[in-house]
Amino acid sequence: MAYALQQLINGLTLGAMYGLIAIGYTMVYGIIGMINFAHGDIFMVSAFIAVTCFTLLAAADVSSIPLALMFVLVVTIFFTSAYGWAVERVAYRPLRGATRLAPLISAIGMSIFLQNTVQLTQGARVKPIPPVIEGGIEVWNTADFAVQIGWSQLLIIVTTVVLMVAFNWMISHTAFGRQQRSCEQDRTMAALLGVNVDRTISLTFMLGAALAAVAGVMVTVYYGVVDFFIGFLAGIKAFTAAVLGGIGSLPGAMLGGLLIGLIESFWAAYLWAEYKDVATFGILCLVLMLRPSGLLGRPEVEKV
Amino acid sequence: MSAVVFAHHGMTPAERLRDAGWVAFVALVLGIPLIGLTTVDAGGRLEVATRFGMLALFVAVAFIGRIALRLTLDHLRVRRLGRERAAAAADGGRGLAQRIVTVLGWFALGAAFTLPLIFSGNRYVVDTATTVLIYVMLGWGLNVVVGLAGLLDLGYVAFYAVGAYSYALLSTQYGWGFWEALPVSGALAASFGILLGYPILRLRGDYLAIVTLGFGEIIRIILVNWTEFSNGPNGISSIPRPSFFGLEFTRRPAEGEQSFAAFFGLDYSPMQRLIFLYYVILVLALLTHAFVSRLRKLPVGRAWEALREDEIACRAMGMNTTNIKLSAFAIGAMLGGFAGVFFAARQGFISPESFVFTESAIVLAIVVLGGMGSQMGVVLAATLLVLIPEFGRNFAEYRMLLFGAAMVLIMVWKPGGLLSHREPTLRLDAPATGTEGAR
C-alpha cells in the first residue's frame, strides 16, 4: 500500500511534466491542425539551456535556491521561446497552404537538425548536474517502506498546477486568448476581422515552447541528467497524452499527461519495467480505436 | 489568372540591411545558449566554456547569408515572372516535362545496369549503389501507402524489420535459403500490415501517423527485450548470403556444393558477391516498379488514388474503404518486408539498431521529397538522400545535420516534392471543350 502511494507520487510528478509538454502539442494542433514534430526536441534544447544556466550559477556561487530557480526559469523560457519561434518561421510558415504532409516532413527534418546541432555543439555525452533540491518530507512510514515526497516533486506538481490555472485564465480571458481561439475556429474569418493570424500562430508556438521549457527545467532538477536524445521519447509520450485527453483541449492535455505518467510508473513498478513504453503506445492505440476524440475532446463532425 | 497583376518593388539597401540585421539578431539569440556557451566535463563536474568567437562567426554568416539569399531570391523571382508570362503564352510545358522525366528514367535504368560493370573493382561505389536501391525499393513500397492511398505511415520500418528478422531466423534456425524465405517473409510482413491496419485504419490522417509510429517503436522494443526470440540488442549474426541458383559466393564452398567462381571458371573475388547482390536488389526493385505500375491501372489502384483525393466521396460511391486501405497497407508492408529480407542477406548481421524511427523518417522523406505518387521522384530523392550523407563523410559528424537541413530546405523550396505529380494514372477521355467550360 505504501509502495503504491509512492508510485502514485512519482507518477504524478512524471505526469505533470508530460502534461506541460503535451499542451504545446495540443495548442499547435488546435491552431494549425498539424503535429509539431520538433516539439520534443525543443523540450530537449530547453533542458540543455537549463543545465548551462545551473552550471553558470554554481560557478557564480549563488546559494539561494529560489533565486537560482527563478533565474534559470526566466532565461530558459526566453531562449526556448526563441527556438519555438524559429521553428515556426523556418519550417511551418513558408509551407502554409501546402499539402498536409509537407510541413510534417520539414518538422521531422527540423527535429533531426536540432538533435544533431545539440549533439555537435554540446557534446554527445550525458550531462550530469549536482542535485539542486535535496530532501523531502516523509508522509507515511510503515515498517518496511517509507513514503517520501521529495521537495523537487512537490515543486514540480505545484508549479504545474499554478501554470495550468494561469494558462487557462489567459486563454479564456485575455485578448490574446480570444485571438488564439478565433484562429483555431476559422483562420480566414479571423484574418478578415483583423486578427493578425501569423503573429498569433507564432505566439502559440512560443507559448508551447515556453511551457516545454518549464518542463525542461523540471526534468533537469528532478533527474539531474540530460542528453541530446531525451526529446524523442518525451515528445511521443506527451503527444500520446495530448491524444488521450482529446487533442485541442487544454485540460485534456493535462489529464492525459497525468494518466500517462501514472500508468507508466505503475506499469514499471508492478509489471515489466522494460516494456513501459509499449504500455504507453498500447494505450494510445486502444484510446484511438475506442474513443478517437479522446477523453475530453469533442467528436469531430466532418462536413462536405 | 491573367487579370491578376502582381506589383513588386525592389527592396532599398536600407531595408535589406535592416532585414539582415534582424536575422543576425535572431541568430545571436539562438546561438548564445548552444554555440556561445557549452558545458564541459571538468573532473566529475561540469564547467561552462565560452566560444564567443564561433558565435560571432555564426552571426556574421547569418547576416551575410541573409543578404545574399534575398538578392538571389529577388533575382530569381524577376526571372520567374518573365518565364511564367512566356509559359502562359505557349502552354504545353507540362507534357514536355513529363517526357523529360520518362527519358531520364530510361537513362537511369541504363546507368543502373551498367554501373557495376564500369565500377567492378570499386567496392565503395557498388556498396553505395546497393544502399540507394534498398531505399528506392523501400520508397516504392511506402509510396503505395502514402503516395497512392494517402495514408500517412510513420512506422514503415516495422515491416522492414519483420522481413529482416523473419529471414534471419528462418535461415539461421531452420536453414532456409534466401529464395524460399523471400516470399514467406513478404507474406509475414503483409500479414503484420493487415494485423496492424485492421483496427486502426478507421482513424484520420494524423492519428494514423502517430499510431503507426507507436507500432514501429513497439516492434523495436520487443526486438530489444525479447532476448530468447531475437537475441536482443546483440542482434543476429552470420546470416547466410543468397546463392546464384545454388552456387555459393565463397572461396571454398561447403562439402558437396560448388562455388560461383569455380563453376564459371573465374578467379574468386569478393566483388562477385557484391555485384551479384547489387543485381538482385536491382531486379527486385524493377519487379516492384512493374508490379506497382500495373496495380495503379487496376481497379484497386484507381481506388487508392480516389481514396487519397476524397474519402467521403469514395464512401458515397459505395466503395469499401476499409478493404481498399487494407490492401494498400498489406502491399506496402509486403514490399517493405522484401527489402528487409534483402537487407538482412546483404548485411549478414542485423540488430534492432537498424530499425529505429529515423529510418522510417528517411523513407517517408524520400517519398515526400520525391513528390508523392511519383515513381521517378522516389529514385531521385533516394539517390539524393543517400548521397548527401556520403559526400558529408569527410566531416562525418555533420552528416545528419546536413540531412535534417536538406529535408527542411527542399520541402520549403518545393513543397510538392521534387517531381510533383498528382495526375490520376488513368483518366476518362471526356470531350475537352465540355470540361474546360465547366470550370
Structure description:
The complex is a heterodimer of chains A (304) and B (439). Chain A is mainly α and 304 residues long. Chain A has one domain: ABC transporter involved in vitamin B12 uptake, BtuC. Chain A has helices spanning 2-32, 39-59, 65-92, 101-122, 151-173, 175-185, 187-192, 197-223, 230-245, 250-270, 276-290; strands at residues 127-128, 136-141, 146-150, 225-226. In chain A, strands 1-4 form a two-stranded antiparallel sheet. In chain A, strands 2-3 form a two-stranded antiparallel ribbon. Chain A is globular. By secondary structure, chain B is an all-alpha fold. Chain B has two domains: 13-89, no CATH class; 93-413, ABC transporter involved in vitamin B12 uptake, BtuC, CATH 1.10.3470. Helices cover 70% and strands 3% of the residues of chain B. Chain B is built from 17 helices and two strands. A two-stranded antiparallel sheet of chain B has the order 1-2. The longest helix of chain B is centred in the first third of the chain and has 38 residues, at 52-89. Chain B is globular and about 80 Å long.
- Contiguous runs where pLDDT drops below 50 for at least 5 residues of chain A: none
Number of domains of chain A: 1
**Percentage beta strand of chain A:** under 5%
Query: Which of globular, elongated, flat, extended, rod-shaped describes the shape of chain B?
Result: globular
Structural class of chain B: mainly alpha
> How many domains would you count in the coordinates of chain B?
2
- Shape type of chain A: globular
CATH class of chain A: Mainly Alpha
Tell me the helix content of chain B.
over 70%
Distance between the termini of chain A: 54 Å
Summarize the structure.
The complex is a heterodimer of chains A (about 300) and B (about 450). With about 300 residues, chain A is mainly alpha-helical.
Quick tags:
heterodimer, A: 304 residues, ABC transporter involved in vitamin B12 uptake, BtuC, two-stranded antiparallel sheet, 4 strands, B: 439 residues, mainly alpha, 17 helices, 2 strands, globular
